[in-house]
Write a structure and sequence with these properties.
By secondary structure, the protein is an all-alpha fold. It contains ten helices and no strands. The longest helix is centred in the N-terminal third of the chain and has 16 residues, at 7-22.
Length: 204
């Protein structure tokens, strides 16, 4: 799939991970993909959104506002997730720390850690996004990338450009990016038409 992405589309996907890291957020969501797409103010669809009052600065502010204080330099999404799991287990009478201590006393320190060999090996353009320590993509963000391929097929294009990613984002319609655009009263039908016209002109 990713061999069909144009250079600018690949750069946008890579930039989305950078945007998430700079905001100290994980996983990479649809909002980070949209931020990456808006990074080039000269890109026609970005100019259309700017005309509707949605530029990178506005989007970044909305993302932070809606995060409700769950981000920041000290934020650790993995730790937060573990804490939530521990609290849920404790609510049904299971002390996760006690279980961990018992297992490590019996089998040794680190017995609960999976060996690196069990990690799946992936290659190609997206391999960097599955490597150790890399910010993962949310289910919604992955869906957007999948839908970008479907949009390309629908339009009978043999490539996937930034416009296809944006069309995929609009088609996904459930992620934070789509909600921000809707709440900002962006004319999504006009945007969709503009994206399609841009792509058809490019493919002609």
């Amino acid at each position: 799939m990713f061999e069909r992405f144009t250079r600018s589309a690949r750069e946008a996907v890579v930039r989305a991970t950078t945007e998430a890291k700079e905001l100290h957020q994980s996983p990479v969501g649809t909002e980070h993909l949209l931020l990456a797409l808006l990074a080039d103010p000269d890109w026609a669809p970005a100019a259309m959104l700017t005309a509707d009052g949605v530029d990178a600065a506005y989007l970044r502010a909305e993302i932070l506002r809606r995060a409700g204080g769950r981000t920041g330099p000290g934020a650790d999404p993995a730790t937060d997730s573990e804490a939530e799991d521990a609290a849920a287990l404790k609510a049904i009478g299971i002390d996760l720390d006690a279980v961990r201590r018992t297992i490590e006393e019996t089998f040794g320190p680190g017995a609960l850690r999976l060996p690196r060999e069990t990690e799946p090996k992936r290659r190609g353009f997206m391999s960097r996004f599955y490597s150790s320590g890399h910010t993962p993509f949310s289910g919604s963000a992955k869906k957007v990338l999948e839908l970008s391929l479907r949009e390309a097929l629908r339009l009978k294009h043999n490539f996937i450009a930034r416009e296809h990613i944006m069309l995929g984002l609009l088609r996904e319609n459930h992620g934070l990016a789509a909600r921000i655009l809707t709440d900002a009263h962006v004319d999504l039908a006009r945007l969709r038409t503009g994206l399609t016209e841009s792509l058809n002109h490019r493919a002609a």
